[in-house]
Amino acid sequence: MSPGTTPVIESSAGRWMPAAAHAGIPSLRRSRLEHRALRSGLLTGGAWAAAILASVPLVSVLYMLIVRGGARMHWDLLLELPPAGFEMGGGFGNAIVGTVVMVGLAALISVPVGIACAVFLAELGPHSTLASAVRFSAKTLTGLPSILAGVFAYASVVLVTGTYSAPAGAVALAVLMVPTVVLTAEEAMKMVPRITKDAAYGMGCTRSQVIWKIVLPTALPGILTGVMLAVARAAGETAPLLFTALFSSFWLVEHGAVRLMQPTASLAVLIYNFSGMPFENQIELAWAASLVLVMIVLFVNIVSRLLGRRRV
Amino acid sequence: MITEPAVMNGHTTTSNGNVVIDCTLKQVYYGEFLAVRDSHVPIEKGKITGFIGPSGCGKSTVLRSLNRMNDLIRGFRFDGHVHFHGQDVYAKDVDPVVLRRHIGMVFQQPNPFQMSIFDNVAFGLKLNRFRGKVADRVEQALGRAALWDEVKDKLKNNGLSLSGGQQQRLCIARAIATEPSVLLMDEPCSALDPIATRRIEELMVELKQNYTIAIVTHNMQQATRVADTTAFFSVDMSKGGRTGYLVEMGPTKQVFENPQQKLTKDYIAGHFS
């Protein structure tokens, strides 16, 4: 039957057939060799390949860490002090404590400052010149080479106090954390819908009440995600600690009291120091410490994912 | 036709001593944009005043000027007076925060807070450091908003878990819990289905025994159903801009059945929108 003729519904086989099937309407079945389909297939394949390529470094690093770090992994490593020179055994308990203490101090500095700053950027003066300047410098600071944060802390804390110390390391890490906290918290607060804020103003809220009772609670998951990302980044930083906290083979405790104003160990610096040593024992410890550090960062990231989940 | 000059305050028969909010608006700007001009809108106690008119005629702007919600918009300038119980709300010493506690508002999109149903209604009470029994007031407000029976067993649930119509009634309950004297409603039904709309309309008619209500609506039938007084706004495009102004205001029956202005007549007949 040619396309021009009136379609006839064939019913000889007792089956109903759509009239269109006989009226020259093209088949709708997919053809894999048609050139648009080919191009689409190539692009899809390319995207898959790129995605796999991008995850190669992460997967291979994790693999190496688990194989080489896992070989030496033992609970004792988490409790013992680093070995010296030709000594065998040892661990990196003081480095874990040092990392936790310094990151914690850095968070104590950067989180309140960062959130207060974000409140200004998102709510109080979003269009002010100061806000544009702060936003610009925060964005620039996120790309700051981390060693420069160390230089800043060296000049402002180490030289002033006259000693390498945990607080000096914390200041360096805080400088790196503030921009991340500011920018993510501002973004989270901007996501609070206009109509929700209108509702609060319509109820007779002052601006500070709107911020405290509505904007901050509503934006909290987003803010916490930003904080945790900043924490995870800071935990892995080496360069800013090299000449602020330096390193130590001892606990932060002296004569039964915690003393922060002394050189402090951290996992990142321990990995840096030990991996370059000519001793097999130290190199193995560096691998194990890397595994622990990655686990800590992974844990923080998972917590941030959980906190960032919206609850309705 | 549209360039026809407005007759200010088309009639004065309703302007007796019961005016709660007397809005005399000269010019309202958003930045350089003249949004509304020359409109006198008196709102009477215990009645529902409906604002109708085509899109962009400034009816929402006028409504939001009454409790100074527009102050939150950058570039907003109000030239004129809004007298609330005789005080000019735009006077320098008036705190808009205090004003909004007396003139409540319900918005176009239901906007409950990200908190429980109970806390949503109790929110304003806590703001005002209400000293009585909060639970009783919450129940009373939800009851008046015709929502109590539906939510009494799930007061701890998040306000956002309710349906759209329920959310809007929750917002009304939240607004009336603090006993404002005036309730402004900015197209409160435009995001709702017809059944939910009908419930809100019934509610408004009940609420006017205790509150004065001003409502912006896109729906002329809604205005005829609920409003005692109707204000018709239109857009003037004669000077290149789109400036809204009040064309006519009067008892709803009169505005719809015997409009004084040709523009009103055309709009009601559906000749333009």
By oligomeric state, this entry counts as: heterodimer
Report the principal-axis shape of chain A.
flat
Q: Classify the helix fraction of chain B into a percent range.
A: 25-40%
Could you report the average pLDDT of chain A, rounded to the nearest whole number? Answer: 86
Q: What is the name of the CATH architecture of the domain at 19-111 and 182-268 in chain B? A: 3-Layer(aba) Sandwich
Task: Please report the total strand number of chain B as a whole number.
Answer: 10
CATH class of chain A: Mainly Alpha
CATH architectural arrangement of chain A: Orthogonal Bundle
Unreliable spans of chain A: 8-14
Share of helical residues of chain A: 55-70%
> What is the structural class of chain B?
alpha/beta
Tell me the number of structural domains of chain A. Answer: 1
How do the strands and helices of this protein lay out in sequence?
The complex is a heterodimer of chains A (312) and B (273).
Chain A: H1 35-72, H2 93-124, H3 129-142, H4 146-161, H5 166-190, H6 194-202, H7 207-235, H8 239-242, E1 253-254, E2 257-258, H9 267-275, H10 280-308
Antiparallel strand pairs in A: 1-2
Chain B: E1 19-30, E2 33-44, E3 48-52, H1 59-66, E4 76-84, E5 87-88, H2 96-102, E6 103-106, H3 117-127, H4 134-144, H5 148-151, H6 164-177, E7 182-186, H7 194-207, E8 212-216, H8 220-226, E9 229-236, E10 243-251, H9 252-257, H10 262-268
Helix pairs in contact in B: 3-4, 3-6, 4-6, 6-7
Provide structural commentary:
The complex is a heterodimer of chains A (312) and B (273). Chain A has 312 residues and is mostly helical. Chain A has a single domain, classed as MetI-like (MetI-like fold, Orthogonal Bundle). Chain A is 66% helix and 1% strand. Chain A has ten helices and two strands; from the N terminus they run H-H-H-H-H-H-H-H-E-E-H-H. A two-stranded antiparallel ribbon of chain A has the order 1-2. In chain A, strand 1 and strand 2 form a beta hairpin. In chain A, helix 2 packs across helix 9 and helix 4 crosses helix 5. Chain A is flat and about 80 Å long. The relative contact order of chain A is 0.13. Chain B has a domain of 180 residues: 3-Layer(aba) Sandwich (Rossmann fold). Chain B is 33% helix and 26% strand. Chain B contains ten helices and ten strands. A ten-stranded mixed beta sheet of chain B has the order 5-4-1-2-10-9-3-8-7-6, sandwiched between helices. In chain B, a hairpin with a 2-residue loop joins strand 1 and strand 2. The radius of gyration of chain B is 19 Å and the shape is globular. Chains A and B meet through helix 6 and helix 7 of A and helix 2, helix 3 and helix 6 of B.
